């Protein structure tokens, strides 16, 4: 058995007879802004080749090598082509951080095989899949190239124009951090929009789906851009030369501001976190109609997440696109809705469809149009009594109390279950 290093993303590799150990590769940060390179250098890709039936013992991120591992349900996926992935069914040992992994793997064939602690979809397969989808639905949607990434890959949006009079636009993004397989949310929503249920929604809403916000990250296999920018925490929309990914997306949004913006991410090793949305405080929005609708949408999302959500400064990050769209247009923004891969691929796909369709159906049910949500010149919303300083203080206090409650609940769950091996999302 040998490791194909040029196709692996690992460091500190050492091999000894039937054992392989390595650590996850560390990625470098862009020098300006918050890029969290350490936090986002958690994944690995190991490419192996050997005889069919050969078994090897694999240790990832294990230091010291005999560190105690208390849980045996960590996630490992394998694939021949980085498009169809299967979850390893035998136990994968880890500790309460979810980062180290120890397991044995038997080669199913003599072809090269990829192993990873996440699902790392191959860039070319994704591109072809999306192209084929658009070619198969020429009456419904088209692909727009809105610009090019730092390494000259297409920044592309699949647009579904409204079929009758347009009430407004909805924007969905995924693939900000390519090691998080949240692109499965976009792929599921595309299929939903081509189904009879989805087509009803397109009567009045134009839907823009951007599956790969960070194409260079898919190509290079990193959560950051080619020069180390973290697009979520450091959305450098004015920096065309260093961050064309943010510049061109913002340019598109300025021309086509959405009334609703959704963005998906995925937890992979964070087993203790329930799938949940990040909620902005009501104080971020202007006008009573928007606030009332956001309250309803928050409730729908929280219900779909069994009561879990995140609120506070991280959900209103000053350099995030969500903050930018809400500040500029009053767009209702739900970014960083996190799937959790512990729940599985199919339930996460269903979760994406449920979230998208429930929020879109709320817009239809309340006959919401762009003019009811966006501020001038794109809409008619102006400040009212709900934007007074007393009301704003009330909303801030309210979200602070909710935040204390939800953090308490989350940490209680983490400490109670951190050594449990049969943990399931519930
Ligand atoms: Zn992410």
Please name the defining characteristics of this protein.
Immunoglobulin-like, 426 residues, 17 strands, binds zinc ion, globular, 2 domains, five-stranded antiparallel beta sheet, alpha/beta, Aminopeptidase
Word description of this protein:
With 426 residues, the chain is of the alpha/beta class. It has two domains: 115 residues, Sandwich (Immunoglobulin-like), CATH 2.60.40; 294 residues, Zn peptidases (Aminopeptidase). It has ten helices and 17 strands. The strands form four sheets. The protein has a six-stranded mixed β-sheet, sandwiched between helices. The protein starts with a strand and ends in a 9-residue tail after the last helix. The mean pLDDT is 93.
Summarize the structure in short.
By secondary structure, the chain is of the alpha/beta class.
**Second CATH tier, the architecture of the largest domain:** 3-Layer(aba) Sandwich
User: What are the segments in which pLDDT stays under 50 over at least 5 consecutive residues?
Assistant: none
Number of DSSP strand runs:
17
- By CATH, the topology of the largest domain is Aminopeptidase
The average pLDDT score comes to 93
Give a list of the ligands: zinc ion
Set out the fold topology.
Blueprint: E1 2-3, E2 10-16, E3 19-24, E4 45-49, E5 55-60, E6 77-79, E7 86-87, E8 101-106, E9 113-116, H1 123-136, E10 142-148, E11 154-160, E12 168-173, H2 183-193, H3 196-201, E13 205-210, H4 215-220, H5 244-255, E14 260-267, E15 278-279, H6 288-304, E16 310-311, H7 321-329, E17 332-340, H8 345-365, H9 370-373, H10 389-417
Parallel strand pairs: 3-5, 12-13, 12-14, 14-17, 15-16
Antiparallel strand pairs: 1-4, 2-3, 4-9, 5-8, 6-7, 6-9, 10-11, 11-13
Helix pairs in contact: 2-8, 6-8
The protein binds zinc ion.
């Amino acid at each position: 058995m040998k490791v194909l290093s040029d196709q692996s993303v690992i460091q500190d590799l050492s091999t000894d007879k039937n054992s392989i150990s390595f650590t996850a590769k560390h990625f470098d940060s862009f020098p300006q802004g918050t890029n969290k390179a350490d936090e986002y250098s958690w994944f690995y890709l190991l490419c192996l080749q050997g005889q069919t039936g050969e078994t090897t013992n694999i240790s990832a991120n294990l230091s010291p090598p005999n560190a105690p591992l208390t849980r045996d349900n960590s996630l490992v996926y394998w694939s021949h082509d980085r498009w169809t992935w299967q979850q390893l069914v035998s136990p994968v040992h880890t500790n309460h951080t979810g980062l180290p992994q120890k397991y044995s793997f038997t080669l199913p064939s003599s072809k090269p095989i990829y192993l990873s602690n996440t699902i790392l979809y191959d860039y070319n397969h994704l591109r072809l899949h999306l192209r084929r989808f658009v070619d198969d639905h020429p009456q419904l949607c088209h692909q727009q190239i809105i610009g090019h990434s730092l390494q000259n890959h297409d920044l592309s949006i699949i647009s579904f124009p409204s079929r009758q009079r347009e009430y407004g636009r909805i924007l969905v993004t995924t693939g900000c951090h390519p090691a998080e397989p949240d692109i499965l949310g976009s792929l599921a929503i595309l299929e939903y929009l081509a189904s009879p249920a989805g087509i009803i929604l397109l009567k009045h809403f134009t839907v823009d789906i951007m599956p790969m916000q960070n194409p260079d990250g898919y190509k290079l296999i990193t959560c950051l851009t080619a020069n180390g920018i973290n697009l979520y925490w450091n959305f450098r929309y004015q920096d065309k030369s260093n961050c064309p990914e943010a510049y061109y997306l913002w340019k598109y949004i300025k021309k086509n501001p959405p009334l609703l913006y959704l963005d998906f991410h995925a937890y992979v090793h964070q087993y203790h976190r329930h799938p949940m949305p990040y909620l902005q405080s009501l104080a971020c929005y202007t006008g009573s109609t928007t606030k009332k609708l956001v309250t309803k949408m928050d409730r729908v999302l929280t219900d779909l997440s069994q009561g879990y959500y995140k609120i506070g400064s991280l959900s209103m990050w000053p350099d995030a696109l969500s903050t930018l769209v809400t500040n500029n247009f009053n767009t209702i923004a739900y970014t960083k809705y996190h799937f959790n891969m512990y729940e599985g691929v199919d339930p996460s796909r269903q979760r994406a469809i449920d979230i998208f369709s429930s929020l879109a159906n709320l817009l239809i049910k309340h006959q919401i149009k762009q003019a009811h949500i966006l501020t001038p010149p794109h809409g008619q919303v102006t400040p009212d009594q709900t934007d007074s300083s007393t009301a704003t203080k009330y909303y801030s206090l309210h979200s602070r109390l909710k935040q204390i409650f939800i953090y308490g609940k989350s940490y209680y769950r983490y400490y109670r279950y951190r050594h449990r091996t049969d943990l399931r999302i519930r």
